[in-house]
Amino acid sequence: MTHPKQPFARRIVIAFTLMTLVVSGFFSLSIVAIVHFVERHLVSQELKSELDTVINQDIRQGHIPRLDSATRFFASDLPPYAIPESLRHAEKGFSELREGERAYYIYVMKRDGQTYMLVEDQSEFEAREQMLFRGILFSFLLSVVGAWLLGLLLARKVIAPVIRLARQVRHRDQLLPLAPPLAPEYPDDEVGHLAAAFDSTLGQLRQSLERERLFTSDVSHELRTPLMVIQGSCELLRETELPAQANRQVERIGRAAQEMHELVQTFLILARARREEAASGGSATLASVAEEQSRRWGPPIRAKGLNFELVVEDTDSASYNLTFLSTVLSNLLRNALHYTENGTVRLILEKGGFRVEDSGAGIPAEHRERIFQPFVRGEQARGEGLGLGLSLVKRICTHQGWQVRVSDLEPSGSCFRVSLK
């Protein structure tokens, strides 16, 4: 079951208003019920006592009933006081009657088979009662509105420390080693405990980031030296006369060393926290990087018996991060090489992006999202990789604000489209 997401301050206001609505509603209904009960009980007792006096004293002694101008007496056995047709069905005891804008109290007593009745005009009292009920309704509505306004004020005050803490936690400077702790700025309450928990978590995060920076720095420095030695040795071996088989192995070693150098540079830049620091990777146009990657991957693709094409559909003069763009293109072309057994691999340049198309077996729709996860490979795995190439492509695109999508081609094959803008 999913719950609608509401801001915390709004939930406080809603809870405060609902509580006032329930409490005020209960008291308002209680007042109305008490007024009706008291009215019925007191008026009933008063009319009963007055009717007893009229029957036992005035009528028995032959006197005219001593009543005020708002009260009238009726009896079934006394023709001068005959009961009107409209009142003959009145029930025994106390009841109320409305005729247009007039309201009456009726008290009926049955004695010795005869019916006696007092009818009191209570229109004035009913008008005052309605004014009382309107006042209760107005007070109820006023209390609800007041509760809503007071809830807004209290919610702002209650939520203010949490909002302040959230802003401080979101601030990037909190990740710096010298960032001050948050807990001392808050009292020893729930918000203070939350700030202390954030301090602990941020401390662990700082340590992890520091370990990652040290690791990437050490790895980059330690690997660059042997890679330079390998690349230099390959250059020297290319200048010597070697058998064809040995030359192919030297070329393979050189390509692998170049790929390792680019991967080290890529991971080093990705490990840096700030995007602006990634500018150290250099810049180049899409066309120049595509030409360089075509010269690099064209020969091994053709050596496998496949056709390789570089197609320019539109030009793009913008500059992009050289290291990241080279890594993305290299991984997509390698992936096409591994998963294509016959046909063609095409690199197509567009305005603000490119496509890598192959005539391989394609990717099932249910696997198109998973293939960008680490260590996930296709059903027909090829090459010696561990399933990190497409994951690295996705990570670079996310870091740079690019988009990568995969779709099928007809009659078979896959298309990886990368939007650089």
From TrEMBL:
InterPro entries from the UniProt entry: HAMP_dom (IPR003660), HATPase_C_sf (IPR036890), HATPase_dom (IPR003594), His_kinase_dom (IPR005467), HisK_dim/P_dom (IPR003661), HisK_dim/P_sf (IPR036097), Sig_transdc_His_kin-like_C (IPR004358), TCS_sensor_his_kinase (IPR050428)
GO CC annotations on file: plasma membrane
Annotated EC: 2.7.13.3
Species annotation: Azotobacter vinelandii (strain DJ / ATCC BAA-1303)
Domain of life of the native organism: Bacteria
Gene expressing this chain: colS
Major location category of this protein: membrane
Location in the cell: Membrane
Segments crossing the lipid bilayer: 12-38, 131-155
Family matches, as CDD domains: HisKA
Protein's name according to its UniProt entry: histidine kinase
GO molecular function: phosphorelay sensor kinase activity
Keywords: Kinase, Membrane, Phosphoprotein, Transferase, Transmembrane, Transmembrane helix, Two-component regulatory system
Enzyme class: transferase
HAMP domain residues: 156-210
Entry-linked Pfam families: HAMP, HATPase_c, HisKA
Residue ranges occupied by any Histidine kinase domain in the UniProt entry: 218-421
Tagged with keyword Phosphoprotein: yes
Catalytic activity, reaction form: ATP + protein L-histidine = ADP + protein N-phospho-L-histidine
